[in-house]
Amino acid sequence: MLHDGVETQGKGSQPRYGRRVRVLIVEDELDLADAIARGLRREGYAVDVAADGTDAIDRLAVTPYDLVCLDLTLPGLDGTEVCRRARAGQAAGDPRIIMLTARDTLADRVAGLDDGADDYLVKPFAFAELAARARSLLRRDPARTGAVLRAGAVTVDTARHRAERDGRGLDLTAKEFALLRYFVTHAGDVLSQEVLLDHVWDEHADPFTNTVRVTVGTLRRKLTVGEEEPLIETVVGRGYRLRADPDDRDDRDDRGGSAPHGAAEGE
Ligand code: CA
Question: Ligand 1 mean position to 71 CA, how many Å?
Answer without folding.
Answer: 6
